[in-house]
Structure formats: structure tokens, C-alpha cells
Design a protein that fits this description.
The complex is a heterotrimer.
Chain A (H helix, E strand, L loop, with lengths): L4 H40 L16 H8 L1 H34 L5 H9 L6 H12 L4 H8 L13 H23 L5 H9 L4 H30 L2 H6 L7 H10 L4 H30 L1
Helix pairs in contact in A: 1-12, 2-12, 3-4, 3-7, 3-9, 5-7, 7-9, 8-9, 9-12, 11-12
Chain B lengths: L1 H21 L2 E8 L2 H17 L3 E8 L2 H10 L8 E5 H9 L22 E2 L4 E14 L22 E3 L4 H13 L9 H10 L3 E3 L8 H4 L5 E5 H10 L4 E4 L7 E8 L6 H12 L1 H11 L2 E2 L8 H8 L2 H6 L5 H19 L4
Parallel strand pairs in B: 1-2, 1-3, 6-7, 6-8
Antiparallel strand pairs in B: 3-10, 4-5, 5-8, 5-9, 5-10, 5-11
Helix pairs in contact in B: 2-10, 4-13, 5-6, 5-13
Chain C lengths: L5 E8 L9 E8 L4 E5 L6 H9 L6 E6 L2 E2 L10 E4 L11 H11 L4 H14 L15 H13 L5 E5 L7 H18 L3 E5 L2 H7 L2 E6 L2 E6 L1 H6 L4 H6 L4 E9 L2 E4 L3 E4 L9 E6 L5 E2 L6 E11 L3 E8 L2 E8 L11 E5 L5 E7 L2
Parallel strand pairs in C: 3-8, 3-9, 6-7, 7-8
Antiparallel strand pairs in C: 1-2, 1-4, 4-5, 9-10, 11-12, 11-14, 12-13, 14-20, 15-19, 16-17, 16-19, 17-18
Helix pairs in contact in C: 2-3, 2-4, 3-4
Classes of the chains: A mainly alpha, B alpha/beta, C alpha+beta.
Chain lengths: ~290, ~350, ~350
């Protein structure tokens, strides 16, 4: 090791330069597709012109409007609670699947993993329509209930928060499964065997070994689902029947219907702030877990 | 493959070369998509081009007026669009940003035939057609079509109505309902909100997907509050499953405006086009073909066409128009009230 | 039967879809306090046996008794065995002390009693001062000690070690080898360990079982295995050897092709074909005579205490290990004579001609 130290360092030096050069296109792409729009968005949220034009005056009125209106507070709370509910159920449902896929030694494991994340191949819009067919008043479930004479009037399963939640959970599950599969690196069958040998029953192996070791994966999955859920707008809009007011749908409404772009921008910034605080909390939690 | 490709490339070159050879003025028009675009190209643009062989009208359909507005805002220093067809409420917003040029009767003589309410913001935006808000019903499940806006509150339609009201539809419905309640929309809209809340419990979805027509066609709901033009078109083309019932209390049209983009490089050709689009001839043809209400006061509609656009003679007599610039000042507020006082509770 | 602490009887493991069993009717018994090494090349089934005893693999058939109890149906967590895994399998989310305390906790031992027991176990493996460390901060040797402490603190009835030294570097390996042996004899725990390393097996085990293709070829003390290998496989697997085959021409004498007559001390029928072996250290430098072979030294490896030389005789190569203090040491090219006493010739097998 020490004998090759000097040349290795030289290579590292030129490597760093190469690395920078290789990073340039990616950084540029990130700048133009992510950073610049973000800056534009932030600037737009202070714009005095309703078209969010650059150059004009600056004002805080849109933040004032967004933050003093109890309705938007309620919308923010709705958004948070939808995010929490969706991530909770997505994690609960994804965890056994991800755990099975991680631990399975079956030769079908690859196929099963592909199947579990295959829904990602279709767009969220298509899958939302799928859920409308299942949960609608004349959908599969209501049709079955009525055919079995269990109900006469349709049970409202869609066009409300319930429908939006169900659809979001299913739509976002592949993301949490993928995140968990990536985050389960510390799981190792030998650790489970070691725990059994030391007298732990299957249940205690799960609680003391599997669960703590898979917690980082669970947290990553939950965070990913949460972030995607609170920024979702197509599914809450379509499955919510217009009744589900979340920041995503409000931003859409302000941007495309009432054409109040600065307010839409201000609401987006609020949503971003919500993201950031959750990510900060998540990273603190993760650091504590892995410390 | 390559041969065919190069052939078609050649054809393209030849076509553009030909256009240049004849020195045609290109005129870019951005407007609504779908059936509107089809009809507009066929019944307005084609006759105009026939009369003006030196002008080549290029129609670009846009998803919605908000998108058109975004495009115009982006291009304000160097517009590629010459004429924009957009919703009146969006047009007023655009005028606030100075995106459109003022027209005058000298270069657009047909302006003289437009009623005052249609000449918006000092002749910057001119209303050219109105698409009435109406009630759509499924002819297979609804034996007795509704005749009044108040029929929406009939308990038999519980969970059977689709109503997207958090946009211009709601903004138009408010003055209609206010009139039914005997109130003026400029005073207070509380009566309209109250009437909306009477039928709101019947509403299954406030966000019909994919749109307010398909949910009736598929039988998912019995009634839906939609635009007349497309409803009539679907009535004629979809085997009559969709029925249109214009309520007797009359309605208001979603008003479409034609606008000359400020800084257009082809302003003269644009004015000629706008003048033709506003002519009684063009508006009458478009009304007959697309069931959009004409604006030009010289247009005379046959009773059959008038009925398909406005409904019964009673409804025709009750047809209203709005003070759009005033509406523009309350547009967001009204939608907010519909969202917060009607939809959020139902 | 019950005098033995561990009894394995006709144990068989056939994996689904496999043509031949991985473990094929293996039986052995182990007295209390002894250490048995399962030795063999990879894939011979030694680890499978260990894991079946542990309860991590279900046997296809056969019985396993521990302390007189039949345990093959007992679930893993109730077998009360300690196991040291090849990669240690320490719980990464726990401290060193937490790992060691885990087994006690599972046994419901109160917190107040756990502390001293954990401390004693850590002291035993010289980790007493590192209890609060994360296991990921330990060196390889320390992890090994931690794993041993963890498996012994529960006072197991049987200690199982799966290739316990294979993850350590050479120097540490010798140290840990002695230490494991020392701890095992101090605690008196009965132990079975799996290895593919003959030195490890010979130096650590009270007894060793040499395995090949799912079967035990020979089981015995290191000395028995080394000096009296039951067959060619054992002889070849343990230590080096000069393998000589020939026809028995007289009682206790065989004619080795190319070498001439070789006397040995084993009954063999005249005329039969025998396989014999001479360990390199059994050869001595001598004057030509009976049971002596003369040839030119063509290879020479000096190993400190031992000089390994090779000579060619009649197209055969013989290897001899000579003690370097034994006076004259031959040089390359020198003609030497190697002699072996008939009692030092190992008889491996006999077949009718």
C-alpha cells in the first residue's frame, strides 16, 4: 500500500481533474434544468407583476397572501397528512415485499423484483385511471358489492381523499420497494442465523435484528414516498374529484386557472420549504440510526 | 426507407420553395385545439386564404389559454405569433401586461358591427364567439331531461352529476344562478353560492376525468355541466347517447376573443384576418358549423341553429352577456369562493 | 451411547434436485470436552454437517443427540449451542457488549446479572476495555474474539466454529489458533470446528474427521490420522508423502517398480498389489543397503530446521525431509542414499493382482 502511495496520489490528482471535466455536462444540465428554474421560481414569487415578469418590483404580498390565509394553512396540513398517510401505508405494504425480495434465494427473485417495480413502466396518469375504474361508483368494487346485494347505492370510494390515498399508495409503492431494496444492504442471513443460535425466536430475530437493520431502507422509502406524495397533483386531482385540496393542486390551480403566477410560485416555495424541513429531519434521524 | 425519406424531404423543400417563390406572408395564429381547430381551419381560415392568396395562415393549436398566455409572455420581445385566440378572462390578463395591440375601425372595419361589450379593453381584444354553458345528460339513463338549472338539485341525481366549477364554468354559472335568485352579480354572489350548495350534494366529481363530456358518454354520471359547442358535436357524432338540455333560465357564453399580438411582424395581414374573422359571414358560418354563438350584431341565425346554440325561445330571450373586464377583477376571488364554500364542503 | 456428549448417527442431507447427497450417512460420537475438527476440501459436506448440528439446515435423515437428547427436531433457538461464523456475523447496530449480551437477553437473564457475565466473557477474550465500541470499529482479530465471547457467554452445551481462522492474516491466525484452543480447554466446552486447513486441524483438534464427497474417510486423533492414514485420500490430504505401489513378493516385502524391493510391516498376501507410503521425514541418510535408495539430488529447499530434498531413482521421485542439525547436509548434484525402516512404511491398501 505505502509503496504505491506516491504514484497513486499523482493519479488521484489528474483523476480529480478528469472527474471535474466529466462532471461538467451533468452540472450544466442540472444548472439549466433544475437550478435556473428554481431561481426563476424564487424570483417569481416576489414579483409585483401578475405574469411574474423579471425586472419589475419586488413584493412580499404573495407570501403574505399564502401565509395569512387560513385556507392555505389547511391545504398545507392536508398535504402533510396525505403525505404521512400515503407513506405510512406504502411502507407497511412495501416492507414485506422488499424484505421477501431481499431475502429470497429463489431463482425467480429477479423476475419477481422486476414485477414489483414494473408498474413504473406505465405513467401515473394511466394508473390513476385504472384506479378510477376500480373504485368508481360504477367500478369493479361497487359492481361486486351490488351484485352480491351487499349494498344498493354505490359506496363512495373515489372522488375523495380515500380514493386519492389508495391510488397514491399503489402508484408510489414501487418507489418505496426500490428504495428499500437499495437500503437493505446491512441485512445478512448470517446475522439472523447468529441471532437464532443465540436463542432468539423468529419474532425476536425480526424485532431485534431485521427491523433495526432495515430501518435506514424503510426511512429512505418513506421519505421518497412522502416527497412524491406531497408534490403529487394529478392523482389527488383526478382521484380526489376536486375535493382534495393539496399544495400541488393549488399550485396548478393558481398557475393555470386563475393565472396568479407569483402566488403559484410562492406556494411552490412553501412546498419546497416543507420538503426541505422533512429532508433535514430525515437526515438527522438517519445519522442517529447509523451513528 | 432512406429513399422515401429523401423524397419527402425534397417535397418539403419544394413546398417551402414554392411558398417563398410566391412570396406569401405567413400569418401565425395560435388558438384552441380539438374540434374548434378543425372547424376554424375549415370555415374561417380556408375561405380567408382563398380571398387572400398572398397570406398563408398557419394555425397552431394550444392546449389552453393559460398555455397561450405563457407562450406570448415568453416571446413578448420578439413574438412569432401574430394573432391569438384566447378566453376573454385570459385576454384581459394579457392586456394588463400590454401583450396585445389596439385595433381600429379604419383597419378593421367590421369592428363597427360588434356590440360594445365585445370590444374589450379599448379594442385590444374583440369577442368573436360565445360557447354557452349548458347541461349535458345521458339519454339512456335520463328519461326526462332537466329543463332548469335548479333541476340539478333534484335528489334523484344524487351522486350522478359531474361539475367542474373551479374555472370559467363556475365563474359563468354564478351570474346565471344569481339571476335565478333575483340578484345582481355585481352586488353579491352569496345567492349563487347558496344555490350551488343546493345541488352540490348531488355532485359526484368536481374534477371529471378525462373531461365533462366523457363521464356522461360512459354513463358514470347522468348530468354534467359543460360547453354547448362540443356537446352538440358529440350529440351528432356519438350515436345520440349525449343529450344537450339548455336550461330555460338562459345561459352565458364562454367568450373567445381574437387579439393582435403587440409587435407582430405581419400586422397588416393580421388585421385583414381579424377583420374577416369578425365579419357577419364568417361568424354565421362558424355558428352554423360549430354551434358557437356569434357576436357580430348583423348575424341572423335560423331558428333551428339558434335553438341548438341557445336553447328554447324562452332560453334565447334570457341569454345574458357579462361585463368581462369587471369579471376579470373578481375572477380569482369567485373561484376561490366556489372552492372554499362549495367544493370543500361537498 | 450416552457416555458421548454429541452423537451423530447416519446423518444424510440431499438437496432437492441434487443427484448425490451432500452428506452421506455420516456418523460419529464426541466425548464431553473434546474438540473435533471436520476437515476436508471445499464441497465435501463438512459445513453442511455443522449447520445441521446447529439446526440451520434440516437433515434429510439421521439423528443428532446432544447430552443424550435427540435434538434434530429442536428449533435452532432452543438448541443452546454457540456458533462462531466464518465472517463473525456480529450485529452491526450493537456495541461489542451489546453483541455479547444478546444471547443472555434472549435467555431472559436480568439486566443486573448480564453486566458481570458480559464483562467476564470480554475479559476472557481480552476485549474487556472495548465493550462500548461499535463492532464496526474493531479489527479482524478483535471481531473474532468478540464473536467467541458472544458464543461462549451463553454457556453453550456445544461450540461450533465455521472456518474460524480463514478471515485472519497468517500471524494473527497462529495467535488465535492457540487462543481458541486455550479458551476451549479452559472452559471445557465441547467443540466442533470446520476447516480445510490441515495444520489448523492437526494443531487444534483432539480428534479429526477427514471428509471427502459427503463421507467421513477417517476419524481419529491427529497422530492416528497422520501416521496411519486409512487410505490414499487421507494420506494425500494430510501431509506430504511418497506414494509407492508394487507387488508383494515375500511376506512384508514388495517389489516397487523402478526402485526395487521395499520391506514393510503389514500382512499382505504374496502376489497381491499393494499401495504403500513413506512420509518424507521418515527417510534418513544412510549407506546403501536394504530399504535404501540411491540417487542424485536434483532439488533442494532449505526451510530452517528442515531441508527438503528430492532425488530421482529409476524414473521415480522421492522426497525427504532432513533435520538440518543431522551433520552433513547434501548439496545439489550429490549422490545420496535414502533409507527407511520397515516400521515407518505406511501400508495403505492391498488389491488382488
Amino acid at each position: 500500500m505505502s509503496a504505491t502511495g506516491a504514484p497513486a496520489q499523482q493519479i488521484t490528482g489528474s483523476n480529480r481533474f478528469m472527474l471535474l471535466i466529466l462532471l461538467v455536462p451533468g452540472l450544466l444540465a442540472l444548472m439549466t434544468t433544475f437550478l435556473l428554474p428554481m431561481i426563476w421560481l424564487a424570483r417569481a414569487s416576489f414579483s409585483t407583476s401578475s405574469m411574474a415578469a423579471f425586472g419589475g418590483g419586488m413584493t412580499l404580498e404573495h407570501y403574505h397572501a399564502a401565509l395569512t390565509d387560513p385556507f392555505y394553512w389547511k391545504v398545507a396540513m392536508n398535504t402533510l397528512s396525505l403525505g404521512v398517510t400515503v407513506s405510512f401505508f406504502a411502507v407497511i405494504l412495501s416492507y414485506p415485499i422488499a424484505l421477501f425480495l431481499t431475502r429470497s434465494t429463489s431463482r425467480w427473485r429477479g423476475v419477481l423484483t422486476a414485477l414489483a417495480v414494473a408498474p413504473l413502466l406505465t405513467s401515473a396518469v394511466v394508473r390513476t385511471y385504472g384506479w378510477m375504474v376500480i373504485l368508481g361508483d360504477r367500478g369493479v368494487i361497487n359492481g361486486t358489492l351490488q351484485a352480491l346485494s351487499l349494498t344498493t347505492d354505490p359506496v363512495r370510494l373515489s372522488n375523495n381523499t380515500f380514493g386519492a390515498t389508495v391510488a397514491l399508495v399503489e402508484i408510489l409503492m414501487p418507489y418505496s420497494i426500490l428504495a428499500m431494496l437499495a437500503g437493505f444492504g446491512r441485512l445478512n442471513p448470517q446475522l439472523e442465523e447468529a441471532a437464532s443460535m443465540l436463542g432468539a425466536s423468529k419474532l425476536r430475530v425480526f424485532w431485534r435484528i431485521i427491523l433495526p437493520l432495515s430501518l435506514p431502507g424503510i426511512l429512505t422509502g418513506a421519505l421518497l414516498v412522502f416527497v412524491l406524495a406531497i408534490s403529487a397533483f394529478v392523482t389527488p386531482r383526478l382521484m380526489g374529484g376536486g375535493r382534495v385540496f393539496v399544495l400541488g393542486t393549488e399550485v396548478f390551480q393558481e398557475a393555470t386557472v386563475t393565472l396568479n403566477w407569483p402566488l403559484a410560485a410562492a406556494l411552490s416555495v412553501v412546498l419546497l420549504a416543507l420538503f426541505s424541513s422533512v429532508i433535514v429531519i430525515y437526515q438527522r434521524a438517519l445519522r442517529r440510526l447509523e451513528a | 426507407m432512406t429513399k422515401r425519406l429523401s423524397l419527402s424531404l425534397l417535397a418539403l423543400l419544394a413546398a417551402s420553395g414554392a411558398a417563398h417563390a410566391q412570396d406569401k406572408t405567413p400569418l401565425n395564429v395560435v388558438g384552441f385545439s380539438g374540434v374548434f381547430a378543425e372547424n376554424y381551419e375549415k370555415f374561417i381560415i380556408a375561405p380567408f386564404e382563398a380571398a387572400h392568396p398572398d397570406i398563408d395562415v398557419i394555425y397552431q393549436p394550444s392546449k389552453n389559454s393559460a398555455e397561450t398566455l405563457a407562450l406570448l409572455t415568453l416571446q413578448r420581445s420578439d413574438p412569432t405569433v401574430d394573432v391569438a385566440l384566447i378566453d376573454v378572462s385570459v385576454a384581459i390578463k394579457a392586456n394588463g401586461e400590454g401583450l396585445f395591440a389596439t385595433l381600429d375601425e379604419a383597419s378593421v372595419p367590421n369592428l363597427a358591427d360588434q356590440p360594445d361589450w365585445a370590444r374589450i379593453d379599448g379594442d385590444k381584444s374583440i369577442a368573436f364567439s360565445q360557447d354557452n354553458l349548458t347541461i349535458l345528460y345521458n339519454t339512456e339513463t335520463v328519461s326526462e331531461p332537466p329543463t332548469s338549472w335548479t333541476d340539478l338539485a333534484d335528489p334523484k341525481y344524487k351522486g350522478k352529476i359531474a361539475a367542474k366549477l373551479a374555472d370559467t364554468r363556475g365563474v359563468i354559472l354564478i351570474p346565471i344562478l344569481n339571476k335565478i335568485a333575483g340578484a345582481d352579480y355585481k352586488d353579491s354572489i352569496d345567492p349563487a353560492i347558496e344555490l350551488m350548495n343546493q345541488f352540490a350534494p348531488n355532485v359526484s366529481t368536481w374534477e371529471p376525468a378525462p373531461d365533462c363530456y366523457a363521464v356522461v358518454q360512459s354513463g358514470e354520471v347522468d348530468l354534467s355541466i359543460c360547453w354547448n359547442g362540443r356537446s352538440q358535436y358529440l350529440h351528432d357524432t356519438q350515436g345520440g347517447i349525449i343529450g344537450v338540455s339548455a336550461p330555460k333560465e338562459g345561459s352565458i357564453g364562454q367568450t373567445n376573443t381574437i387579439n393582435l399580438v403587440e409587435g407582430s411582424a405581419h400586422a397588416d395581414a393580421a388585421k385583414a384576418f381579424i377583420n374577416y374573422a369578425l365579419s357577419a359571414e364568417a361568424q354565421a358560418t362558424f355558428a352554423e358549423q360549430s354551434f358557437y354563438g356569434p357576436v357580430n350584431s348583423k348575424v341572423e341565425l335560423s331558428p333551428e341553429i339558434a335553438e341548438r346554440i341557445y336553447g328554447s325561445p324562452e332560453a334565447q330571450a334570457a341569454q345574458m352577456s357579462l361585463d368581462w373586464p369587471w369579471i376579470a377583477t373578481v375572477y380569482s376571488e369567485w373561484i376561490q369562493r366556489i372552492n372554499r364554500e362549495v367544493i370543500a364542503f361537498n | 451411547m450416552s457416555e458421548h456428549h454429541v452423537v451423530v448417527d447416519n446423518l444424510v442431507k440431499t438437496y432437492p434436485g441434487a443427484a448425490t447427497p451432500s452428506v452421506d450417512h455420516v456418523s460419529f460420537a464426541l466425548p464431553k470436552g473434546e474438540m473435533l475438527a471436520l476437515l476436508g476440501p471445499s464441497g465435501c459436506g463438512k459445513t453442511t454437517i455443522l449447520r445441521m448440528i446447529a439446526g440451520l439446515i434440516e437433515p434429510t435423515s439421521g439423528a443428532i443427540q446432544l447430552n443424550g437428547r435427540e435434538i434434530s427436531q429442536t428449533p435452532v433457538h432452543k438448541r443452546n449451542m454457540g456458533m462462531v461464523f466464518q465472517a463473525y456475523a456480529l450485529f452491526p447496530h450493537m456495541t461489542v457488549a451489546g453483541n455479547v449480551a444478546f444471547g443472555l437477553e434472549m435467555r431472559g437473564i436480568p439486566h443486573s446479572e448480564r453486566g458481570p457475565k458480559v464483562q467476564r466473557a470480554l475479559d476472557m477474550v481480552k476485549l474487556g476495555h472495548l465493550g462500548d465500541r461499535r463492532v464496526t470499529q474493531l479489527s479482524g482479530g478483535q471481531q473474532q474474539r468478540c464473536a467467541i465471547a458472544r458464543s461462549l457467554v451463553i454457556e453453550p452445551e456445544l461450540l461450533l466454529l465455521d472456518e474460524p481462522l480463514s478471515n485472519l492474516d497468517a500471524k494473527l491466525r497462529d495467535e488465535m489458533r492457540d487462543e481458541i484452543r486455550e479458551i476451549q480447554s479452559r472452559t471445557g466446552v465441547t467443540a466442533i470446528f470446520v476447516t480445510h486447513d490441515q495444520d489448523e486441524a492437526l494443531s487444534m483438534a483432539d480428534r479429526l474427521a477427514v471428509m471427502s464427497a459427503g463421507k467421513i474417510e477417517q476419524i481419529g486423533t491427529p497422530r492416528e490420522i497422520f501416521d496411519a492414514p486409512a487410505n490414499e485420500f487421507v494420506a494425500g490430504f494430510i501431509g506430504a508423502g511418497n506414494f509407492l505401489s508394487g507387488r508383494v513378493t515375500a511376506p512384508g516385502e514388495a517389489e516397487i517398480e523402478g526402485l526395487g524391493p521395499l520391506r514393510f510391516e503389514a500382512p499382505a498376501r504374496i502376489g497381491s498389489q499393494v499401495n504403500l507410503m513413506v512420509r518424507p521425514h521418515r527417510f534418513k541418510l544412510a549407506a546403501p543397503g536394504p530399504n535404501a535408495f540411491t540417487g542424485q539430488v536434483d532439488s533442494l529447499v532449505y526451510r530452517g530446521q528442515i531441508l527438503t530434498l528430492g532425488i530421482s531413482v529409476g524414473g521415480k521421485r522421492l522426497t525427504a525431509d532432513l533435520h538440518t542439525h543431522a551433520g552433513h547436509l547434501p548439496a545439489k548434484g550429490e549422490t545420496v542414499t535414502l533409507a527407511v525402516a520397515p516400521g515407518d512404511v505406511t501400508f495403505l491398501s492391498e488389491a488382488a493382482a
